[in-house]
Write a structure and sequence with these properties.
Blueprint (H helix, E strand, L loop, with lengths): L2 H9 L5 H13 L14 E3 L2 H9 L6 E2 L2 H7 L10 E2 L8 H7 L3 E5 L7 H4 L4 E4 L8 H16 L2 H21 L8 E6 L4 E5 L4 H8 L15 E5 L10 E5 L4 H8 L2 H4 L2 H4 L3 E4 L8 H13 L1
Parallel strand pairs: 1-2, 1-4, 2-3, 4-5, 6-9, 9-10
Antiparallel strand pairs: 6-7, 7-8
Helix pairs in contact: 2-7, 7-8, 8-13, 9-13
């Protein structure tokens, strides 16, 4: 159906199935849906990286994102669009700039403790609730992708993203068929004495399960799905593969390379330590597919 015909029918009171579904889903979220394929692209501002990843994955380029440098360092893919403005820190976005931008919609994820009221005075606010305990992270990423797709009039793109991500992981699972009995652990490094190890309740754990891979880290984790431990506690994983996520701060990498504690870990002595490119541990489906892809190359 042409866009002009769609507008004519809508004006006459005949909504398309896509618009009806979008209206229903957005009403569930408490925010009116944006017009499907409006005359101009919707102006979306994102308060943090997870929502930015999701919006871009659905084919919409945000006009502004909080901490764009951090996004490019930690999330990387999908790329921020050219001309995307920096809203300042994720903990304290620039309200003055946000007001000047006059967005059609503001999108932000659960977990930053921001007061919603100032943002709702600027534009409708769509909140993406990740790691709130209602669903496992991967499943919640699928749920929230559908909700955001309805909000943006991108239901088809949302369904496609869900199916393509599942297909990518299913295809990669075959590559791991000979490694199912070889556990691995995934860590982020922030200093030369501690690591963040991802386990139960993390997006990475959900992807490992879908790849039929065992996580060598079985200790309790927090509500975000990781444990922060001293490097010496990695002795517990034995000679399992150790996957470290970039970015590792340069001064930390220098100290790690010079650390006898690190060098004497069984997994390091066995040559089983690997570093892979950045993947946002608290991301959505794009992060899940990226993790599976780089894990297959490690």
């Amino acid at each position: 159906m042409s866009e002009s015909r769609r507008r004519t029918e809508t004006a006459a009171g005949s909504l398309t199935r896509r618009e009806c579904v979008g209206a229903f889903a957005a009403a569930w979220c408490g925010v009116a849906p944006l017009p499907a394929r409006a005359a101009r692209p919707p102006r979306i501002a994102c308060l943090e990286w997870t929502s930015a990843e999701m919006v871009i994955s659905l084919g919409v380029g945000p006009v502004a994102v909080a901490d764009t440098k951090g996004y490019r360092d930690w999330v990387v893919d999908p790329d921020l669009p050219a001309g995307c403005l920096d809203l300042g820190s994720r903990g304290e976005p620039n309200l003055e700039l946000l007001t000047e931008l006059r967005p059609d919609l503001i999108v932000g994820a659960y977990g930053y403790g921001l007061d919603e009221a100032p943002f709702k005075r600027i534009a409708p606010l769509h909140t993406v609730p990740f790691y709130d305990g209602t669903e496992a992270p991967y499943r919640q990423a699928e749920t929230e992708t559908l909700k955001l797709g309805a909000q943006l009039g991108r239901e088809v793109e949302a369904q496609r993203l869900i199916h393509e991500t599942a297909a990518t992981i299913a295809d990669l699972r075959a590559q791991f068929s000979g490694r199912a009995d070889q556990p691995l652990a995934v860590v982020s490094m922030f200093d030369d004495r501690h690591v963040r190890v991802y386990g139960k309740g993390s997006l990475f754990q959900d992807v490992l399960d879908r790849l039929s891979l065992a996580n060598a880290w079985t200790a309790p984790t927090d509500s975000w799905g990781f444990s922060t431990v001293g490097i010496e506690q990695l002795v517990a994983i034995g000679e399992a593969r150790l996957i470290s996520l970039d970015p590792i701060p340069p001064h930390v990498k220098i100290r790690i390379d010079q650390s006898s504690l690190w060098a004497n870990l069984p997994c390091v002595k066995a040559g089983n330590a690997r570093t892979i490119p950045p993947i946002w541990p608290f991301g959505g489906l794009a992060a899940a597919a990226r993790f599976a892809t780089f894990l297959a190359r490690a």
